[in-house]
UniProtKB/TrEMBL annotation:
A molecular function (GO) term: serine O-acetyltransferase activity
Annotated protein name in UniProt: Serine acetyltransferase
Enzymatic reactions: L-serine + acetyl-CoA = O-acetyl-L-serine + CoA
Keywords: Acyltransferase, Amino-acid biosynthesis, Repeat, Transferase
Alphabetized PROSITE patterns for the sequence: HEXAPEP_TRANSFERASES (PS00101)
Residue ranges constituting the Serine acetyltransferase N-terminal domain according to the UniProt record: 17-121
NCBIfam families attached to this UniProt entry: cysE, EPS_EpsC
Gene3D superfamilies: Hexapeptide repeat proteins (2.160.10.10), serine acetyltransferase, domain 1 (1.10.3130.10)
Pathway assigned in UniProt: Amino-acid biosynthesis; L-cysteine biosynthesis; L-cysteine from L-serine: step 1/2
């Protein structure tokens, strides 16, 4: 077994994201005392964000087949061995706060947003997959799909700063790649075009915005900072900093800004 990481775990005063979450939870106890048990058990009883994530996710994903305790131990192990998991979670929290107007506090993704929770559980499953523990990874994938309605294959590669709004019916295939700072809405599919083996899923660049219900199919590349309109079916390469729309999708104009995933502007203004 590889040695545990010797990197010191973050403490609240040195971790601005976790410190803010704890401050928000303390204030929430005062505002909603009937939920004090939730705020304490999910946030205030934990020393780090990683510990809180492991607790929250294991609570959500536990079943008769796999206990909360075992899941939590696996997630604690993953975070201890790969500090990048916690780094990505913090980037995802900040991304959600900055891009989702319904997220006015850092603690909301951790407690309530299934898109954030599903992505963090996928990150654990992906770590397990890299360790050769494919059955455990598949079990987590199954439970995430059952509990959150989000199906991300553990073999997919997903960057950080990810925001999935609403997240219902998200499907991301085994060989898909999603870059950093990507935003997508519900019912997005990054899928294949048949039953062929090998590299068969889309490659999404950095800063891409994918609208609700969009389907991107096949081993094609969506360039950096592109924008895919809601309901589109994308079957061909998408140039960087362009907007595509339609069934099948075609280029209808430029992306409209340098970072569409950050502005979250889905409107087509005269492009079609």
């Amino acid at each position: 077994m590889p040695e545990l990481s010797k990197n010191p775990r973050p403490v609240p005063e040195l971790d601005p994201v976790w410190s803010r979450i704890r401050q928000e939870a303390s204030a929430a106890v005062e505002m909603e005392p009937l939920m004090g048990g939730v705020f304490h058990s999910s946030i205030l009883h934990h020393r780090t964000l990683e510990q809180a994530l492991a607790f929250r996710l294991s609570q959500k994903l536990a079943s008769a087949e796999m206990s909360e305790q075992i899941l939590r131990e696996i997630m604690d192990e993953a975070h201890a061995r790969d500090p990048g998991l916690g780094t990505a979670a913090r980037a995802d929290i900040v991304a959600t706060f900055e891009r989702d107007p319904a997220c006015e506090r850092f603690m909301k993704p951790l407690l309530y947003f299934k898109g954030f929770q599903a992505v963090q559980a996928y990150r654990i499953a992906h770590w397990l997959c890299l360790q050769g523990r494919s059955d455990f990874a598949s079990l987590i994938q199954m439970r995430v799909s059952e509990v959150f309605g989000v199906d991300i294959h553990p073999g997919a590669r997903i960057g950080q700063g990810i925001m999935i709004d609403h997240a219902h019916s998200i499907v991301i295939g085994e060989t898909a790649v999603v870059g950093d700072n990507v935003s997508m809405l519900h019912s997005v599919t990054l899928g294949g075009t048949g039953k062929q083996d090998g590299d068969r899923h889309p490659k999404i660049g950095n800063g891409v915005l994918i609208g609700a219900g969009a389907k991107v199919l096949g081993n094609i590349r969506v360039g950096d900072c592109a924008r895919i309109a809601a309901g589109s079916v994308v079957l061909e390469e998408v140039p960087s900093r362009s907007t595509v729309a339609g069934v099948p999708a075609r280029v209808v104009g430029e992306a409209g800004c340098s970072q569409p995933s950050l502005t979250m502007d889905h409107l087509l203004r005269g492009e079609i």
